[in-house]
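Weekly structure sync, notes
Attendees: PL (lead), two postdocs, one rotation student
Agenda item 3: pending single-chain targets
PL asked that the sequence for the first pending target be pasted directly into the notes so everyone works from the same version. It is reproduced below exactly as submitted, 154 residues in total.
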Amino acid sequence: MLDSVLTKDHERIDAYFNDFLLSLSSKPDVDKLDLIVSSLRNHMFWEEEYLFPEIFEENRLRIQGLEAEHGAILKLLEEVKKLISVNEIEDAKKKTQGVMRVLKGHNEAEEGYIYLELDKLESKKQAGLILKEVEHASAPKGWTCRVLRTGSLK
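Predicted structure, written out during the meeting:
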């Protein structure tokens, strides 16, 4: 269960990266870059604070390596932001492609081993860990429920 959820989240973030990279050929979509960073931070937070501790003792070195990569990925994305801010778009494109390569290997390591280890946890435990993610989720700014949006509650 966790393997499927986490892998789908990787795919969602990868799609954001592809859109952002495409935007670097015309007008850099900094909102998409911000979405990438916030999505990655959320994903990494869930992994580091809730998921990895569940299997840390048996996977100490792998997890420590993945956490080091988390830091490197976020630092590289800050460099992309800086390059865009000084209008070094070609360098930003190359740096983004580099981040995508690092992330591809990182995701393969997580999906190929760590997530499979998480899937061995009891289903109730996995459900509880998914709920930890939901606790930290937030609706988009300005969102309201359908009834209030449409004014059908009078």
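Discussion points:
- The radius of gyration is 18 Å.
- The chain has a mean pLDDT of 94.
Action: rotation student to compare against the earlier draft before next sync.
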